[in-house]
Amino acid sequence: MEYFFYLIIFLIPYLAVSPWQKVMRIPAGLIYVGLVLVFVLMLLLERPERLRWKNISRVQLVVPLLIFFAVNLFSILRIIISKGMAALNANNLKEMGFLGFAVLFYWAVTVFVDNEERFMKSLKTFVICSSIASIYGITRLILFMVGSDYGLAQGWTVPRLLATAGESQVFGGFVISVLPLMIADVLFKNNIFEGPWNHFHMGILLLALIMTFSAGAWAGLVVAVIFLVLWFRYYSPKSIVSSALVVLVVTMGVFLIDRTIYPNYLEGFNSIVFKITGHAPAPEKFANKNAFEVLKQEMPQSTASRDQQYVESVFSKVERSWFRAALWNMFKSSPILGIGAGNFEALYNKYRPPGVPAPPYVPKPHNQYMEILAETGIIGMLAFIGIILNLFWYIFQCWPRLEPNKRRILVGLVACLLAVGVHGYAFGILVHLQVWLLLALTMSLLKLDPTTRTLSAIRGGLY
Hints:
mainly alpha, 22 helices, 0% strand, transmembrane
């Protein structure tokens, strides 16, 4: 059962990186759901008493998560009661199905990871599978840039790393769920891996994140690094400076190589600058923010001029501003209980800003917090805040009894959670299973018995 569990973790970036790209599609996603359900059944057959509510409620954070699930479910039931079954749509079922599955997954991880050896193996498996997926993405992107791989169709003039996801920002969100941990491992010299392997994993993940050109994920990493530096300054400022210089040199070297291979590559930074500042390079061309059809027609197909480089960025930024305005209108229409979990896509055209044309397809709203507020109202947001408060209160309670090595790993995991939290402003985070794994591993570390083997005694090889 133990190695079956590590296989489940290892497969996350390949079968479960995003529910609307992987988990909810046959057959890969359903295979992964089946593997997790089989593992849960194995846990219950091993110790049936785990099914008792008394034991379930003892698992840290499960009760706040179940409350959040119940609030989401009630937001849908309320709509059905008032408008009938015709108001139910497929997104309601997917939203609740994945949320329920994610809570079950969280419970299974926290129950199984009950000693330090399992914790370290789980952590290493998560890092290794992330690095392998990143290497795959980096390799394929370089092949695309040199013209050897024509199967990587993209809507951007500058190629962006997708790896095992369908969108670069999805994989960027995946990388920041583990990269800050490896940065902390290098800074704190925890040596989760022997020899140079911790530097290797950090370098690969950092390179993959840079090549995604995901502004939200970059912002998340910046906040995580600031948190780590503020914490780490009490240990060795010299190590911070030396590590920063190494990262800078390697990053600049990589970009110079990429620019040699693909001359227009560094233009991707201008897209990031535009998303932050809002200043397009050709204002006379893109000044009309409601020109939905014009932007869509000018989207680059294969080759494009320098100005067209920014069309995707302009369109993305403008569209997300429309999404935020629609979410706010949804919240104002039902501020207490929301419009119903999963109803953003179905009701977007009803609440979109005046003058904004109806799009042919409505994706996720790219703002996790406003999505919660709009779909489940103030009650749902309070339930979500309750999860965060419970998490940090438990960290505060456990901190005094943690040995130094555990504290340093905990700081790295919290940095990952901060990075993911920042990314949530620009993207969905609760719909990605690695976030739930990160949360479960954090809670598993906190509940470990301090009398068991220390982390320093079980470091080294993978298993």
